[in-house]
## 1
Amino acid sequence: MKKYCEECGKEVNTKIITKKEVYDVCGEAVEVEARVLICAECGEELFCEELDNATLVNAYNEYRKRHKLLLPEEIREIREKYGLSQRSFAKLLNWGDKTICRYENGSIQDKAHNSLLLFFREPENMRTYITENEVMLKESQKARLLKYVEKLEQHEESRVGRKLLNQFFSKELSEENGYRAFDYDKVCAMVLFFAHKSPELLKTKLMKLLNYSDMIFYKENGISISGLRYAHLPYGPAPENFDILLGTMAADHIAHIEVFYDNGYEKHQVVPEKEMPKNVLSKEELDVLNRIYTKFEKFGSAEISNYSHKEKGYVETKKGEIISYAYAKDIELN
Ligand SMILES: [Zn+2]
């Protein structure tokens, strides 16, 4: 970029250098790395608005970091997640009309304002605030805001739930999970697939259908579908921590178990609550699920249990042990 240099008295070539500069931010000296435009010939500093502004922003952000203050974009994020305009957010907080606007544009908020903004980052706090205080919002605005809060809370719940769930399942790839990290979405899709196809699917049968699907897919492709590990249980191979998984699926309204009694026997039926999602399972994966479904369509829970007891992977493992996908090669469907 060419610029006029007072020192040289002519248009000169310029270059950008980096140097330390000290700024005064809210009465405090803040040192920053500043990028400065200089004359390539005599080294005189030249004025450049963009670079100056950028340095000023850096100095402000450095000050914010030092005092643990929210950044302007974080303030905007908090406001936007509740679907509020700058003006109505300010109103809700009993602040001046322009206050939020100023903060989002880079003015530094004081400590008290910062604490209040941090407080409103949690949807739960927003709910408490608007239900227990007289707020300066119209009823319709308040109702709309509560809807946003509700959505955020649900989202948060399922996020925490997922995090918990992942702790129970191995993400490290090995022959035990068929070289795939546990994939909750795929498991859900598999469960919905079988639950919709079968009129009265029992939990015991579902476990075997999942196991055969994963094993056959692994046998043919060298990778499992769900990333589940299967353990040797008395009634045949079963997904590890299956009850935790089913509990999560019930909480997420994907499918739940209904218990009923038949001739004095307790039966656990799988009830789907959603359609099977499209695009979660590949065409090849669905093809395997279809073949497994057809093969065992007429099998009752007891029959498929007995059938699975004869598999080499089951015979060669002890109660509670993981049945490796290495045994998949010995499974023959016909
Ligand atoms: Zn010069």
## 2
Amino acid sequence: MEFKKCARCGCFFMSANNVCCNCESKDRLDISRVNSVLDESISFNSIQDLSIASGVNINNLNRYIQNKQISDLNINL
Ligand SMILES: [Zn+2]
């Protein structure tokens, strides 16, 4: 296994994931927050709206979208 740079905090770690083990739990929390916001709301016009509604920052949102970790995304990107 190689050293990787954590996609969230930038530290180096060894794992098969994209984030270090500290950030894994933060990611999970963010994703569940985003999913519950998406469950409740109709749709968002932009990532920014979703970021404000969920309290998750845009960089992380983009990463979850890229990794397909967010379900049911009603955003017109
Ligand atoms: Zn990290």
## 3
Amino acid sequence: MTERVVLITGGVRGLGLAVARRMAADGDRVHLAYRSSHDLAREREAEFEGRVHRADVTDQDEVRALFARIAEREGRLDVLVHAVGEYVAAPLTETSPADWRRMWSSNVESTVLVADAARPLLRASRGALLAFGVAGLEGLAARRRTAAYAAAKSALLVFVRSFAREEAPHGVRANLLSPGVVPHDHAAADAFDEALRARIPLGRTGTPEEVAEAARFLCSDEARYVTGVDLAVAGGWLA
Ligand SMILES: NC(=O)c1ccc[n+]([C@@H]2O[C@H](COP(=O)([O-])OP(=O)(O)OC[C@H]3O[C@@H](n4cnc5c(N)ncnc54)[C@H](OP(=O)(O)O)[C@@H]3O)[C@@H](O)[C@H]2O)c1
């Protein structure tokens, strides 16, 4: 079988890195993209054999250049995992217009840009796209401290489902994976909040490896009939 070519944006740390390692362990040829974590990127160079690229995925020119580089180097792209999406936690009274714009740009606009750039490559390979939401989107529930973040992720869910629908006739699948609370070395402080942990029905936070296992499945041939879903990997927590 031909080695799959995978691009993981936000892949030098956190959940993206866990997915990258899981897919590399399966024999995929994994590329990573990052924005500003230069030291971490350097650390990943050897592990991913130079396939580490700097690109701000909220900038259309940088996104186009990134996908052109992958296309030139590999001639194909089979899987795009978009693990970018900034977070802000505050009540509405303390959420600024700049916070709202940042949530939209980082979570929604970036996905639209990478999906657009990846489309021809994914059509050619009949590949798959995976983006990251947050548990509980389906309920459209009020959020105590994460309205701007959850609103952006809700828009992202509509985008991913629409992309899945439009691309299905071309053999391309698109899904959302929605983690609950998953601490890692660079996670936001809320991921370590005991009060949050206490509300998780399975009684513990998740691990990046558990998220990566679900991501592996959604991007694999085992999930060839799965598209347009939002899979919560959250220990039963729905925010
Ligand atoms: N961890 C959790 O508990 C949790 C829960 C629910 C949902 N999620 C979602 O899961 C995804 C991954 O989460 P995470 O915890 O791994 O996040 P993270 O630690 O913040 O990592 C995100 C990565 O995205 C990169 N990035 C951010 N903006 C970028 C941009 N404009 N261009 C290129 N790269 C950019 C960052 O790279 P640089 O450092 O180089 O800037 C960073 O390495 C996110 O969408 C997040 O919202 C996470």
